[in-house]
Write a structure and sequence with these properties.
single chain; alpha+beta; 2 helices; 27% strand; globular; disordered N terminus
């Protein structure tokens, strides 16, 4: 992490009362299992995977989606460009050549596909809030909040949502 970013750490026991702070570290618990995972306590999403979402309403729709990345998968090089404010995310289909890109058990790629489709058809009320979290590189369940993101990037064509990556503008 660059030196100019002032580090704020939220201990595990304070997660339920914490605000989201840009570039803050949200610490996991001490127990070596999913009960130590912090995002479920912080924002009420699931405990596993790159897409952790919250559904509301009838019929239930995704209203919040935390995108989680280690940023260190060489075959799926997610990236966060701090200068341009662009998060490039490769999704949850980690098997090359495996059928439909959007057909995965977690269904995360469908969330992104639907968000981009809603963007391009003007149905903005059905686009969930996207929050970006990255793993810290240290052992355990620690995550850093990198910001709020919206689908699409100014200057890129609308066909980006059909590619194997999704680019989101971070705010």
């Amino acid at each position: 992490m660059p030196d100019y970013i002032r580090q704020h750490t939220v201990p595990f026991e304070d997660l339920r009362e914490s605000d989201l702070l840009l570039d803050a570290k949200y610490e996991g618990g001490k127990v070596p299992n999913l009960s130590s995972e912090p995002l479920s306590k912080l924002i009420g999403v699931g405990t596993m995977g790159g897409f952790r979402y919250l559904k509301r309403g009838k019929p239930a729709k995704v209203v919040l989606c935390a995108l989680v990345s280690s940023l260190d998968e060489p075959d799926w090089p997610d990236s966060l460009d701090l200068e341009r404010g662009i998060f490039t995310y490769y999704g949850d289909n980690r098997t090359a050549g495996k059928g439909d890109l959007h057909d995965t058990k977690p269904g995360g790629n469908r969330i992104l596909r639907d968000a981009f489709n809603n963007l391009h058809t003007g149905v903005r009320d059905d686009i969930p809030v996207f929050l970006i979290f990255t793993k810290g590189g240290e052992p355990g369940y620690n995550y850093y909040f990198r910001g709020l993101a919206i689908p699409g990037v100014n200057g890129l064509g609308s066909n980006r949502s059909e590619e194997h990556t999704s680019e989101l503008q971070s705010l």
